[in-house]
Amino acid sequence: xxxxxxxxxxxxxxxxxxxxxxxxxxxxxxxxxxxxxxxxxxxxxxxxxxxxxxxxxxxxxxxxxxxxxxxxxxxxxxxxxxxxxxxxxxxxxxxxxxxxxxxxxxxxxxxxxxxxxxxxxxxxxxxxxxxxxxxxxxxxxxxxxxxxxxxxxxxxxxxxxxxxxxxxxxxxxxxxxxxxxxxxxxxxxxxxxxxxxxxxxxxxxxxxxxxxxxxxxxxxxxxxxxxxxxxxxxxxxxxxxxxxxxxxxxxxxxxxxxxxxxxxxxxxxxxxxxxxxxxxxxxxxxxxxxxxxxxxxxxxxxxxxxxxxxxxxxxxxxxxxxxxxxxxxxxxxxxxxxxxxxxxxxxxxxxxxxxxxxxxxxxxxxxxxxxxxxxxxxxxxxxxxxxxxxxxxxxxxxxxxxxxxxxxxxxxxxxxxxxxxxxxxxxxxxxxxxxxxxxxxxxxxxxxxxxxxxxxxxxxxxxxxxxxxxxxxxxxxxxxxxxxxxxxxxxxxxxxxxxxxxxxxxxxxxxxxxxx
Amino acid sequence: xxxxxxxxxxxxxxxxxxxxxxxxxxxxxxxxxxxxxxxxxxxxxxxxxxxxxxxxxxxxxxxxxxxxxxxxxxxxxxxxxxxxxxxxxxxxxxxxxxxxxxxxxxxxxxxxxxxxxxxxxxxxxxxxxxxxxxxxxxxxxxxxxxxxxxxxxxxxxxxxxxxxxxxxxxxxxxxxxxxxxxxxxxxxxxxxxxxxxxxxxxxxxxxxxxxxxxxxxxxxxxxxxxxxxxxxxxxxxxxxxxxxxxxxxxxxxxxxxxxxxxxxxxxxxxxxxxxxxxxxxxxxxxxxxxxxxxxxxxxxxxxxxxxxxxxxxxxxxxxxxxxxxxxxxxxxxxxxxxxxxxxxxxxxxxxxxxxxxxxxxxxxxxxxxxxxxxxxxxxxxxxxxxxxxxxxxxxxxxxxxxxxxxxxxxxxxxxxxxxxxxxxxxxxxxxxxxxxxxxxxxxxxxxxxxxxxxxxxxxxxxxxxxxxxxxxxxxxxxxxxxxxxxxxxxxxxxxxxxxxxxxxxxxxxxxxxxxx
Lengths: 516, 516
Hints:
The structure is a homodimer.
Chain A: H1 13-37, E1 42-48, H2 54-64, E2 70-74, H3 80-83, H4 89-94, E3 101-105, H5 110-117, H6 123-142, E4 146-153, H7 156-168, H8 178-185, H9 187-200, E5 208-212, H10 216-235, H11 270-289, E6 297-304, H12 310-318, E7 326-330, H13 336-339, H14 345-348, E8 357-361, H15 370-374, H16 379-398, E9 401-409, H17 412-424, H18 434-441, H19 443-457, E10 464-468, H20 472-491, H21 507-515
Parallel strand pairs in A: 1-3, 1-4, 2-3, 4-5, 6-8, 6-9, 7-8, 9-10
Helix pairs in contact in A: 1-10, 2-10, 11-20, 12-20
């Protein structure tokens, strides 16, 4: 892989001086067109060996382009904030919006390569990370990003020469530390690790560009030209593809599905409700204050039919908690800033630190619900979303999050009743819109989308709980109980296995037990 | 993921009896159309819990369809033949040709799931295998296959009921063993492992179809309908996509590349050649007879310009070996049988067992050389081939193969000279065709393709050695020497690191040493 980058490539001063003005003008023009069009985010990874010219390259690109619409992201030891979230979180946050270019000095590749060489990450763990990276980059590309991954390579001798030269120049001497010289000693080990990582992540959608780093003029000019050509190609609309998707074959021979099987007549009378509510709120309050909870976070997802009572259920949860410990994130139409990012970005930004609770009132499942039903995104987009969502939730779980997802289901009749009630009550009228009435007409399409969602995204780490919500009391207690049981299982070191879906919660019995 | 498959789905006898005739007719028709069209291989994985009806489903599909164009593949403990090759080899061999349906009773999923439950495969190793599986299935889909993955699910109670029923029926009692009952005890562990594996392999291109296995009629009818609808959709040409690919940006600012840097004037005079030849052939002969070689195989790949001397070089290698230990595989245009399979299939079939040597005279690199240059395949196809080839060679290396790849390069003038010579010599005239002259006209396109090939597929496990072949003697010795050094490094337990590319082989010196 490194053969072409060991030939001693060089550009002489004269050629360079002649080529630069034209390249600069073209780069600026491409950059403006990119902004104007506002569709393509450009992710540039600038990586490579110590002394191979990563910093110089970034500097020269700043010189050549309009720095107002460039950003550079460097990553060192993860901050507190970052350590308490999924490992990829720091990179998710840093992605450029559409129309802009971000240069990553150090990226999601730095830590697996570094940690493996230091002996703190096994080969198998590196391979798991590689798989995660490939899925992440595929998602970026599917979302329209142009991903350019540069690796600046030096031969061992070349690296020695570069470090010496940097050390000699007073302007750059500070950059060369003992650590760099030590790295040179492990040149072979680095090359072996890098070779493996680069090969495994050299995907058709985001291949590596391996370039010789020794000659400044060659490296700068080549990087600039590659960046220019790649942007031009994408602006010209070349070859936009997404991951192949299998079209779902909807088959339901006996008309039974997870929604139709719900028993919506479950009820809890007021007296029992008060007792149960106190019991479970008390329990929840204890659980989130338990010192062992400090290693975890909670991510609650509320989805449900319009007027199914999401807000009321959320209030019954938050009533048991300190307002400093939780955050409610209501999801509406994406903002302009959010539309300029990959679909998942607007959720990434609200991921809680450990020790905290985030409650999503609607969520990333909009992709496979409203966006699917209303045709707001292409079939290929919502079909690949199931995998993306599972990957996302898996990473959350791996970082210590307890993910609890509720679908609140009411009957079509109950919904009609609630709509009409809302229209009558002055302070509730704002809650009902024409859109709600329109959604109602698509009841059957939503029904299919919900069943598919449960089938494809109810996983061991992040199971769905379907809530029979025709009776508000019943629904609220089931939600509180499920949340407590999941949390308890995790905190007492259990697997966090969920309460069985559709389990007929024996509320009567347990309230009796409490009394006795 | 299993929620919809725990509802107690059932089809009554009457409904079943009415539905079957129509379904059978339609399946037969779809099957014939599939054959007629001859473009789509259908891969059906029939997997699931013990007693969930895998065997019954396969039997009923045989009853409903034309069994002449169906095949079923079962896999138990790998045979000797299989153990001595990459783990996926047994499945590669078993793929259906285009237009046919193969049902896999047990598949590439069986061993990771089974071994993990038995405790002989770590989570990380499972995840590595999962990645390999996802890449493999993506390749199948990119090559046009329809991949349907069925998982028949049972609740714990349902499994107990099924096993009891099977045991009671004298026709099926033999199928229930103590092992099955033991598995029931570890139901939760199985579910946990399966849940993880299914989630991670639930890709957009080959998603799982999870189905309740308890009721025979429901399971059979649903499987049949899904199979039918999926085949019909694909016959109708729905949604054919391939993996997104980044278009390469060709940049070569200083005109230097791995080919242009070769010093084609290297020469060895006849006297030295004889000495060197004897030396390296002797060494090779020892190496392949070394008992330690029995844990490895050798895969030599020869590519090169027309008339570069591949055949002569190969003969110098085989002269050092016993004819029973090696096989030369000349690659010409694919046969009809080979065209009905994924691109890589015709190479898979020739993978040697350990202890043996396979020499490919041209190879899978045709995809990124002649097929690219001549436009025999789409750009997206050869662009994804680099990754597929690297994956393939990586699996070979992991199974103990030493992969040694040679590109033989001659100058355009030297080629002309050889062409003319060949036309003059009676017994060599067959070696020169119009095609060779046409290829010559595309010298520049081939040049680019070769450089890209080396950049993208020269990896730690499978590096390219570029051979300056204007002088046949020099080329032959470099090849023998490289092969010996790679083999020696592997056999003496070294990393198998290749001789440096373009290294100026100090032949003179070493031959002197021998004399002294």
